[in-house]
Amino acid sequence: MSAECRLVLVFALALTTASGCASRPPPRAPIPRSAPDRGELAANDELSVWAEGEQALSARYRVAPDGTIAPPGCPRLRIEGRTADAVADDVRACLVSRGVRAPDVRVTVLSRQRAVTVLGQVMHPGHVPLGSARTIVEAVTRSGGTTATGWLEQTQLRRVIDGAPRVFVVNVRRILEGDDEDVPLEAGDVVLVPERIF
Asked: Does residue 13 lie in a domain region?
Protein backbone atom coordinates (compact mmCIF):
# COMPACT_ATOMS: atom_id res chain seq x y z
CA MET A 1 0.00 0.00 0.00
CA SER A 2 1.40 3.37 -0.98
CA ALA A 3 2.14 6.11 1.51
CA GLU A 4 -0.70 8.19 0.03
CA CYS A 5 -3.19 5.33 0.48
CA ARG A 6 -2.05 4.82 4.07
CA LEU A 7 -2.44 8.52 4.77
CA VAL A 8 -5.99 8.55 3.30
CA LEU A 9 -6.89 5.43 5.34
CA VAL A 10 -5.57 6.96 8.59
CA PHE A 11 -7.44 10.20 7.86
CA ALA A 12 -10.69 8.32 7.14
CA LEU A 13 -10.30 6.28 10.32
CA ALA A 14 -9.70 9.46 12.32
CA LEU A 15 -12.84 11.05 10.86
CA THR A 16 -14.91 7.95 11.66
CA THR A 17 -13.64 7.89 15.24
CA ALA A 18 -14.21 11.63 15.67
CA SER A 19 -17.74 11.45 14.28
CA GLY A 20 -18.51 8.52 16.58
CA CYS A 21 -17.34 10.56 19.57
CA ALA A 22 -19.25 13.63 18.42
CA SER A 23 -22.54 11.75 18.38
CA ARG A 24 -22.24 10.96 22.07
CA PRO A 25 -22.67 14.12 24.17
CA PRO A 26 -20.53 14.58 27.27
CA PRO A 27 -21.94 13.61 30.69
CA ARG A 28 -24.22 16.15 32.33
CA ALA A 29 -22.63 18.55 34.81
CA PRO A 30 -23.56 17.76 38.44
CA ILE A 31 -26.70 19.49 39.69
CA PRO A 32 -25.98 21.46 42.87
CA ARG A 33 -27.64 20.45 46.11
CA SER A 34 -29.68 22.97 48.02
CA ALA A 35 -28.24 24.56 51.13
CA PRO A 36 -28.48 22.66 54.43
CA ASP A 37 -31.99 22.70 55.88
CA ARG A 38 -32.43 25.77 58.10
CA GLY A 39 -36.19 25.46 58.36
CA GLU A 40 -36.95 26.89 54.93
CA LEU A 41 -40.35 26.08 53.53
CA ALA A 42 -40.80 24.11 50.33
CA ALA A 43 -43.56 23.18 47.89
CA ASN A 44 -46.31 21.09 49.54
CA ASP A 45 -45.55 22.34 53.07
CA GLU A 46 -48.56 23.47 55.08
CA LEU A 47 -48.56 26.57 57.25
CA SER A 48 -50.93 28.64 59.31
CA VAL A 49 -51.02 32.43 59.06
CA TRP A 50 -52.64 34.45 61.83
CA ALA A 51 -52.98 38.20 61.50
CA GLU A 52 -54.74 40.21 64.21
CA GLY A 53 -58.11 41.48 63.01
CA GLU A 54 -57.72 39.87 59.57
CA GLN A 55 -60.12 36.93 59.54
CA ALA A 56 -60.08 36.40 55.76
CA LEU A 57 -56.29 36.30 55.66
CA SER A 58 -55.87 34.16 58.79
CA ALA A 59 -56.03 30.62 57.47
CA ARG A 60 -54.14 27.46 56.60
CA TYR A 61 -52.16 27.47 53.37
CA ARG A 62 -50.39 24.76 51.39
CA VAL A 63 -47.38 25.97 49.43
CA ALA A 64 -48.17 25.54 45.73
CA PRO A 65 -45.82 23.71 43.33
CA ASP A 66 -44.57 27.10 42.11
CA GLY A 67 -43.45 27.89 45.69
CA THR A 68 -46.09 30.51 46.52
CA ILE A 69 -49.25 31.12 48.55
CA ALA A 70 -52.04 33.60 47.77
CA PRO A 71 -53.44 35.23 50.92
CA PRO A 72 -56.61 37.28 50.24
CA GLY A 73 -55.84 40.95 49.69
CA CYS A 74 -52.12 40.35 49.09
CA PRO A 75 -50.13 39.58 45.96
CA ARG A 76 -48.85 36.00 45.63
CA LEU A 77 -46.09 35.57 48.18
CA ARG A 78 -42.99 33.50 47.42
CA ILE A 79 -42.67 31.04 50.29
CA GLU A 80 -40.29 28.41 48.98
CA GLY A 81 -36.81 28.75 50.44
CA ARG A 82 -37.97 31.17 53.18
CA THR A 83 -38.48 30.68 56.90
CA ALA A 84 -41.74 31.17 58.81
CA ASP A 85 -40.40 34.45 60.26
CA ALA A 86 -39.60 35.79 56.78
CA VAL A 87 -43.11 34.88 55.60
CA ALA A 88 -44.59 36.71 58.61
CA ASP A 89 -42.56 39.80 57.61
CA ASP A 90 -43.97 39.60 54.07
CA VAL A 91 -47.57 39.32 55.31
CA ARG A 92 -46.95 42.19 57.73
CA ALA A 93 -45.59 44.34 54.84
CA CYS A 94 -48.68 43.53 52.78
CA LEU A 95 -50.97 44.64 55.62
CA VAL A 96 -48.99 47.83 56.18
CA SER A 97 -49.32 48.63 52.45
CA ARG A 98 -53.10 48.33 52.95
CA GLY A 99 -53.02 50.84 55.82
CA VAL A 100 -53.01 48.47 58.82
CA ARG A 101 -50.80 49.97 61.55
CA ALA A 102 -48.32 47.71 63.37
CA PRO A 103 -50.11 44.44 62.54
CA ASP A 104 -49.38 41.42 64.72
CA VAL A 105 -48.68 38.46 62.41
CA ARG A 106 -47.72 34.91 63.30
CA VAL A 107 -46.81 32.10 60.90
CA THR A 108 -46.67 28.51 62.13
CA VAL A 109 -45.41 25.58 60.09
CA LEU A 110 -48.02 22.82 60.45
CA SER A 111 -46.36 20.13 58.35
CA ARG A 112 -43.34 19.83 56.17
CA GLN A 113 -44.14 17.49 53.34
CA ARG A 114 -41.04 15.58 52.42
CA ALA A 115 -42.23 15.12 48.88
CA VAL A 116 -41.46 16.04 45.31
CA THR A 117 -43.94 17.29 42.74
CA VAL A 118 -44.11 15.74 39.28
CA LEU A 119 -45.96 17.75 36.62
CA GLY A 120 -46.49 17.86 32.88
CA GLN A 121 -46.69 14.89 30.56
CA VAL A 122 -46.91 12.08 33.12
CA MET A 123 -49.85 9.76 33.66
CA HIS A 124 -50.54 10.85 37.27
CA PRO A 125 -49.19 14.36 38.00
CA GLY A 126 -48.99 15.39 41.64
CA HIS A 127 -47.01 14.92 44.82
CA VAL A 128 -44.84 11.84 45.36
CA PRO A 129 -43.38 11.05 48.82
CA LEU A 130 -39.62 11.49 48.80
CA GLY A 131 -39.18 8.05 50.38
CA SER A 132 -40.50 6.37 47.23
CA ALA A 133 -39.01 8.83 44.73
CA ARG A 134 -35.41 9.42 45.67
CA THR A 135 -34.29 10.02 42.05
CA ILE A 136 -35.75 11.71 39.00
CA VAL A 137 -36.38 8.36 37.25
CA GLU A 138 -38.16 6.98 40.34
CA ALA A 139 -40.33 10.13 40.49
CA VAL A 140 -41.40 9.82 36.85
CA THR A 141 -42.00 6.08 37.30
CA ARG A 142 -44.08 6.59 40.47
CA SER A 143 -46.17 9.07 38.51
CA GLY A 144 -47.16 6.34 36.04
CA GLY A 145 -44.50 7.11 33.44
CA THR A 146 -44.82 9.60 30.62
CA THR A 147 -47.67 10.14 28.22
CA ALA A 148 -47.17 9.54 24.49
CA THR A 149 -46.13 13.19 24.10
CA GLY A 150 -43.73 13.33 27.07
CA TRP A 151 -40.34 14.81 26.14
CA LEU A 152 -37.93 12.93 28.40
CA GLU A 153 -34.88 14.57 26.81
CA GLN A 154 -36.01 18.01 28.05
CA THR A 155 -37.23 17.10 31.55
CA GLN A 156 -36.89 20.03 33.93
CA LEU A 157 -35.81 19.88 37.57
CA ARG A 158 -36.76 22.95 39.61
CA ARG A 159 -34.83 23.35 42.86
CA VAL A 160 -34.38 26.20 45.31
CA ILE A 161 -30.69 26.92 45.91
CA ASP A 162 -29.64 29.64 48.35
CA GLY A 163 -33.23 30.92 48.43
CA ALA A 164 -33.53 31.30 44.65
CA PRO A 165 -35.39 28.90 42.33
CA ARG A 166 -33.25 27.41 39.57
CA VAL A 167 -34.20 25.16 36.66
CA PHE A 168 -32.00 22.39 35.26
CA VAL A 169 -32.70 20.42 32.09
CA VAL A 170 -32.14 16.67 32.55
CA ASN A 171 -32.10 14.19 29.67
CA VAL A 172 -33.95 11.33 31.38
CA ARG A 173 -33.66 9.18 28.24
CA ARG A 174 -29.85 9.20 28.61
CA ILE A 175 -30.28 8.04 32.22
CA LEU A 176 -32.61 5.22 31.16
CA GLU A 177 -30.13 4.14 28.46
CA GLY A 178 -27.28 4.06 30.99
CA ASP A 179 -25.42 7.02 29.46
CA ASP A 180 -25.86 9.30 32.48
CA GLU A 181 -26.30 8.90 36.22
CA ASP A 182 -29.72 9.32 37.80
CA VAL A 183 -30.30 12.58 39.68
CA PRO A 184 -30.98 12.39 43.44
CA LEU A 185 -33.99 14.45 44.46
CA GLU A 186 -34.59 16.62 47.52
CA ALA A 187 -37.76 17.55 49.35
CA GLY A 188 -39.56 20.34 47.52
CA ASP A 189 -38.06 19.58 44.11
CA VAL A 190 -40.41 19.93 41.15
CA VAL A 191 -39.97 17.67 38.12
CA LEU A 192 -41.66 18.77 34.90
CA VAL A 193 -41.87 16.57 31.80
CA PRO A 194 -42.74 18.95 28.95
CA GLU A 195 -44.75 18.12 25.86
CA ARG A 196 -42.72 17.05 22.84
CA ILE A 197 -42.74 19.56 19.99
CA PHE A 198 -43.43 17.68 16.75
From this structure: no
pLDDT in tens, 139-188: 999 999 999 999 999 999 999 887 788 999 999 999 999 999 999 999 88
Query: CA nearest 144: which of 170, 131, 126?
Result: 126
Q: Is residue 31 in a domain?
A: no
Q: Are residues 158 and 119 in the same domain?
A: yes
pLDDT (tens digit per residue) in 48-61: 999 998 999 999 99
Which amino acid, residue 46? E
Let me know whether 122 and 142 are in one domain: yes
pTM for the structure as a whole? 0.57
